[in-house]
Amino acid sequence: MTDSSNGINSEASPDIPIEAKQLRPGLWETVNERYPGSMITKDDIVPLARLKKPLSESRLTFVSSAGVQPKGTLPFDVVHPVGDYSFRRVPSNSKPSDLEIHQIKYPTHGAVKDLNVIFPIERLQELAAEHVIGGLTPNFFSFIGYNMNPEAFERTLAEDIADAVVADGADAVLLSPA
Asked: Which of the listed residues 15, 129, 161, 177 has the most CB atoms within 10 Å of its CB?
């Protein structure tokens, strides 16, 4: 018999209490214990900035933790134990065939078939062409999301990307996790 709340076959493991049969018991309660400072607290929330002009007049950039980068550029270090704190500029006029994914922390088979499922570059180009958005910045930005030191992430990668977004003249930023 399978417990519908957790998908575990209770007949195969009758001696395990039902509360212990979840696939990742207590995960959210213990993340901050295992990785101090990694959980965002309510005090850390910064309100979203309001657009100063209509979206149809705004230049948009895209920031993603998908690990997408132009072919032939230095690959992300996907095996470093604390992560890679660098990012790649992805020209916003790129075609998916110009790009590749360097990532081992999530399954990429769907993205390899259609990059837009994880890095919607063609959809954003279409929105700009249809004047739904005012235009795109010269570059989008990508990094790998596996970073085990949130303070270093904020101090280096997040600040570096924020500076690059401003330098590219973005009015709006679409953020997307992988």
From this structure: 161
